[in-house]
Each structure stands twice: as structure tokens, then as C-alpha cells.
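Form P-L/3: holo structure prediction, ligand flavin-adenine dinucleotide.
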Amino acid sequence: MSVLVIAEHNNLTLNPVTGSVISAAGLIDSEVHVLVAGTGCQAVAAAAAQYQGVTKVLLADNPVYEHQLPETLTGLLLAISDDYAAILAAASTGGKNLLPRVAALLDVAQISDIVDVHSANTFVRPIYAGNALATVESSDAIKIITVRTSAFDEVEKGEASALIEPLDQVITQHKSQFVSENLSTSERPELAGAAIVVSGGRGLGSAENFHLLEKLADKLGAAVGASRAAVDAGYVGNDLQVGQTGKIVAPDLYIAVGISGAIQHLAGMKDSKVIVAINNDADAPIFQVADYGLVADLFQVLPELEALL
Amino acid sequence: MKILVPIKRVVDANIKVRVAADNTGVDLNNVKMSMNPFCEIAVEEAVRLKEQGIATEVIAVTIGEDKAQEQLRTAMALGADRSIWIEKSGVVEPLAIAKLLQAVVEKEAPDLVILGKQSIDGDNNQVGQMLAALCDMPQGTFAFKLVIQDGRAIVSREVDGGEQVVSLALPAIVTTDLRLNEPRYAKLPDIMKAKKKPVEHMTPETLGVTVKSSLKTLSVDEPKGRSAGVMVGSAGELVEKLRHEAKVLP
Ligand SMILES: Cc1cc2nc3c(=O)[nH]c(=O)nc-3n(C[C@H](O)[C@H](O)[C@H](O)COP(=O)(O)OP(=O)(O)OC[C@H]3O[C@@H](n4cnc5c(N)ncnc54)[C@H](O)[C@@H]3O)c2cc1C
Ligand SMILES: Nc1ncnc2c1ncn2[C@@H]1O[C@H](COP(=O)(O)O)[C@@H](O)[C@H]1O
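OUTPUT (holo model):
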């Protein structure tokens, strides 16, 4: 039986994290279908069809799916779930919002945030802020899974294109309505896929000072991240938060500036290949996970680094 | 308006847990336990709605062992009026938690259920969404702002790209994110008063719910550790190392 991946997209472009979910799905079964639900999202479906291993793309293109509200999408997924051995989505705010609803109505468990696939029914997932890895075996007939996309490489795009099949179910509901959204627009790379991430914490002291860090990020072509403390203090938006309850990243290089290294922050970045910590407190816990540590005042170091690069 | 707040007893957020020697779980012997931080935020939000005259009653509920009643007392010290203890020890999967809570929702008919977005032990992030599905209610997850207006809940949510606002018909389910509020500390007189507030004792059997499990934990392992690397003396040395040793910069 095939497995279904729910595409992550904004109606215009396919988010590359979908390629990582396809990669995890391919370890469960070689027949991978992708569901694109949205409005005016043919280009997204075409992009999904290019991924190697994808044999079919289901396209539910209707204004009712514009904001991909979970109350609406659940109905659509229940209508097609019989055909699948597993349904997977990214452990993004979208996937986390949707899949538990689907699991509950199918009367099965959801396996959250998997980082490895041992077999079609055995998965590895971090618990306790990543301080332990649990290997769990599911006895459910259908597996509902969210995937930690930083743990799987995006599958390659192939020459051939999978079949795109329209879905004409139209699910309407009135209990939940979209009101508005405020999405940050940035020229910088997305946190999830960036090769370099420069993150700032409470040590930056203010939103203005955060620009120092942004300048360094721009020199490096890096994404900008932040600790929860920096988000709470209003230096940056919540979409930049790295950690147990924010985004999980694993770039080639992670530079933590003015971040102490709380368990919850480490949970979001400790799988980075190389970690650099810049902090004026030599005892800051961040140094225990850093490959390169620099005990110094960030206000002195940031301009120096920028000049050197 | 009646608000139900499901809360969970978990290992304290400041504790770094260790994997148990036999790899069956983590070692929780003599470890400080607390209310899940996201649940504290849920209690705080419900109590604020009561203080604003929007809610009339706040009920805390937990599924857990005997000692989970401590967290119910905390919730009542923070302002919950009464609570429900569903006695069940051991790990209970999110779907079973949601089914038990569904039974409580059917009994109490709250207008709003506020849960934490995630328990910091299992990091599941499931129960609120599952409960919403089972009760056929709309959901506003990862809330950083909640306004009750004209019989609807207007929920501002933290999403990956920024923020989203949804409007939900009541009764509805809301799950909390960290920025929703800053929970108060319980004052001594309130802690004393909480001792007299009622705790209703229930079990899965009295609620008519069969607790099933479909996930088996085969092992719990320590993740690959990281060790401290080297300290550098200057920005120049750092750049040099990143270029020529780590080779992560051109
Ligand atoms: C349930 C829960 C979930 C959480 N989830 C997350 C999460 O997902 N992500 C997250 O990040 N946090 C999370 N937190 C918060 C976390 O516990 C910490 O409070 C937070 O990470 C601290 O952020 P910080 O390191 O920026 O601030 P601080 O701990 O205050 O550290 C600031 C650091 O800056 C250094 N500094 C100050 N001035 C300078 C200077 N001039 N030059 C150099 N260094 C300087 C200081 O030495 C200090 O080490 C969570 C907490 C809870 C309870
Ligand atoms: N044992 C429990 N008793 C009561 N509420 C719970 C329990 N477990 C989880 N919850 C609620 O569900 C939220 C999300 O938990 P989870 O889905 O396990 O991450 C928690 O913040 C609580 O509000």
C-alpha cells in the first residue's frame, strides 16, 4: 500500500521541507503520493511531481482550501485515507496543527517528530527536549506521522514527472474562519534550510542591536535565528525562534551570539555540524556544546567578524 | 462561560533528564516535578478571563497518578475554582488522554477548553488537536493572544512564517504558546484557600473510557553527545579556524 505526504506550501511555491518528508516516506514504502491542497496551486503540484520517488500527486484545488485550515483539511484526508498505509507531514506548525485531528478521527496514534525510520512500523523520535531518543513500534493499521525535516535530506528532483490527479471533494465547515495573517518577508534564507544560521539571544539587548547580527548574517548569506528570550523581549518575531518549542535546525554552521544555552534552546540546534558560541560569560552552558567558543563582548566581536568576512 | 483547563504533571523544565541505565525510559527518581509550563499559561489565561468577568468558572483537570493532585492544587491556588482528578498511572498516550478529556467535556459542557500546546516530557503536541477533533470543535493552536467576542474566540497564533488570526465558534479548543501571558506566582493565602477547594475523583472506568495503547517503546537511548571543542582568543582566530579547520566558510 502506498504512503501519502502532505505538501507544505503557500499556494504559490512548494516548501522544500516537503522534499525531506518525501525522503522519510520513501523509507516506509516506495510508492509515495503527495497531496497538494490549496487554491490556484497547480504550480505547487507540478513542483511536487518532480521529486524522485513520487508516483502520484493529488491536487485538491479549491478556494475552501486556501488557508489550509485543519478543520477543513481533516475532512479531505478522511475521505482518502483508506488508500494509505501512512500519512506524513512536516513537523511544522501546519503539520502539527492538522495531523493529530486526522489521527484522532481514524482512532490511531500520531507519532510526532520522527528523526529516523527503522521499518514500516518502527520509528525514532526525540523526547524530553531531545535529551532522549525513543524507538517506538506502532501496531496501528495506518501510521500518522510528523517528520522532523532537519533529520532527512530533501529528495532529488528527477527528469520524469509524476501523474497529477485532481481531487474534487469540497469540504466546507463554518466553525473556524481565517481572519488574517502577518507573515514576515525576508530576503534572507529560510531558517529550516539554511546552510549557516546566526542566532542572537537576550545578550543583544534590543531590537536595534539585533541589526548588528543581521549584518553579519547578510555577509555570510545566513539565516537569522533567535532564542526565546530574544523573541519574548520583542527583538525579533516568533518565526525566528530556535528550540524545543520553536524551529529545529541542523545547518553546517550555527553561530550563537549572546545565548546562554538553555536545554530548550539546545534542543533546536545541537545537531548542527559546527557550532560557534560567542558569549562574555565563560561559564555559559552553550560552550559545552560549541566546537569553537569565544569569550568576548559581542558588541566588539560582531563588527570585527563582519570586517573580516 | 465555563472554561476547562487540562493540566499535566511533568518533570520540571529546568531539569536535564538522563536516560535510565536499562534503556526503558528516563530516570525520574527524586526528580523535581511541576505543572507543564504551557499548562500554567493555560490556567493563567483562564483565570484572567474570569477576572475580566468573561468566564464564570474555571475547572482544572488532570489524568495521572496520585501525586498529580499536587498540580491540581497549584492550579486552584492560581485561581481555578475546582478540579477533576482522573486516576491513571503510567504513560497514557495522547489519544487516550483526549478520549478521557472528551468524556469530561461531555459531562461539563465547557464553552472553552484551554490546553498547553505541548507537554515538555513527551513533546507530543497532540492532545488539544485530538480533543478538538473528537468533540467536533474548532481549534486555535499555539495561541499568543485570545479575545472572546460576540460568542466567538478570536485566536492569534504563532505559525512558522509569522502570525495568523482565526475566529472560532464556541465551544472551541485553544492551545497556548509561551507568549500568551506570564503566569503569576501563587500567594500563600491562595495556596491555603486552594486546599479547601473541591477535587472530584474519577477513573477511566467511571467515565466509561477504555484506555488503549498502540505504541510500544522498544528502547530509549541517549542521543549522540557533543563535547566542548576549543576556545579561541579573537575574532580573527575564529574566522581562521572556520575557514581552514572546520572548512565551513570560503
Ligand atoms: C517550556 C519552555 C519552552 C522553551 N522553549 C524555548 C525554545 O524553543 N527556544 C529557546 O531559545 N528558549 C526556550 N525556552 C526558554 C529557555 O529556557 C531560556 O530561557 C532561553 O533560551 C534563554 O535565552 P537567552 O540565552 O537568549 O537568554 P539568557 O539565558 O538570559 O542568556 C543571555 C546570554 O547573553 C550573554 N551576554 C549578555 N551580554 C553579552 C555581551 N555583551 N556579549 C556577549 N554575551 C553577552 C550572557 O552571558 C548570557 O549567557 C523555553 C522555556 C520553557 C520553560
Ligand atoms: N495527563 C494529562 N492530563 C491532563 N491534560 C493533559 C495530560 N497530558 C496532556 N494534557 C494536555 O494536553 C496538552 C498537550 O500535551 P501533549 O499533546 O502531550 O504534548 C498539555 O499541555 C495539557 O494541557
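COMMENT: The first strand of chain B starts at residue 2 and ends at 6.
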